Queue: 2 jobs
Job 1
Amino acid sequence: MSKIRVFLLLFLLAATDILVAQQYQVGVCDWMILKRQKLGEFSRAQEIGADGVELDMGGLGQRAAFDNQLRDPRQARLFKHVADSLGVKIGAMAMSGFYGQSLAKKDSYMEMAADCFATMDRMGSGNVVFLPLGGSGNDWTTDKALRKEIVKRLHALGEAAVKNGKVFGIDTPALLDQLKWSGWLFVERSRDTTMVRNVVANYSNNVNYLKSIFNSLPEPEVKLNSEGRDPKYVETILGRAKKVTDEFSQTYTPMGQNLRNIVANRYFELNDIYAERDSLKKTDKKLAEAVCDSKLYRSHFAFDASLAKYLDPSRIERVKNVMTYNVVKVTYDAQCDMIPTLKPEEKQQILIWLKEARELAIDAESSNKKHEVFGKYKGRINNYLSKRGYDLTKEREAWYERVKARGGQL
């Protein structure tokens, strides 16, 4: 379950009514995706599907100041350039060091706030800065003196924030709509316990889920051609198309909806082409095959063109891999593992044929037919390797023993 932090204006900051539209942008904390003040946080956020990042001020430890590399204007410009070039926003700043250090005991807290305000101006990161109180423990709820000190320091920080046009946010379980909140929601921690180190999978699933909950998606540009089709069949096809959008962590985004419809429409189109072929076969088998081949040829390139509106060539390849069960990668990796002595030109030829097979398999009418296509090309590859002098029987036996020795199986 995701933990969502919502920035609540403190009363001492004279909260206004300026945020009224119910539109949410979902971001991730850079330190939680293991990219604290690293340029890679922006590409990671993009890969996850987040709208932006909450950029941390850097580590604190026992230091009097944050380990903040963005004090350097050159570094700040570089970070801004990378973020802008990827279309990833810097939604807020954070002083996460106070998860481990007590606000009530850090005498340099005002200087640290000033450093943060200056960095925010340098980065153009909006006006909100997150201040956790985790390092202060829970004693302040019962220790009156400690609570008084924290309140005093929060008041001083609030006054400084007002003067600098900034807002301090704290953890709150507040209800968003009742607060008339709009703006950024940041996912702080979200992990599947079976894959705790898979940052992209964990955060992309939760970021996209939050988007689906808080933001209604606009009508897709690409219309789903489902009219007149069996609803159960449509549901099955949309399930197949979702595997593609899941590959890019875009299932709950506008781009993902268009991509889903393009892929689903391709499956519908193939079904129609083969249904027409089967109908024509009843009277003229030769004509049936000719009409089918002609329509497949034309539609094959139209599919690529539709995808190209939303994806670059490398990602179009990933779509095709998903639609053909990743047979290209699985087979290529197996061939290279089976015959470690393959020459570069031999590996290249194997990959060329497998990709050629994929282009044919993607137009096949069923899973079995797709695998039949790859089967034929695997035979071609085996013949090629045999002519190159490889004893495939011995290579396969040796491979089996290697795999068995490392605890695997074929």
Note: The CA atoms of residues 228 and 234 lie 10 Å apart.
Job 2
Amino acid sequence: MEYFTQEDLRPSERTLRIIRQIAYTYRVIKMNGKYEGLCLN
């Protein structure tokens, strides 16, 4: 049986950059009691 450690699950730097870019440009705000997505471009 093969065991996986945290190092095996570490994403590449390119993947992390894409996630950071999405997180920076996409926000969720609450308006009128409802959550709405907002893209900052």
Note: Residues 19 and 29 are 19 Å apart (CA to CA).
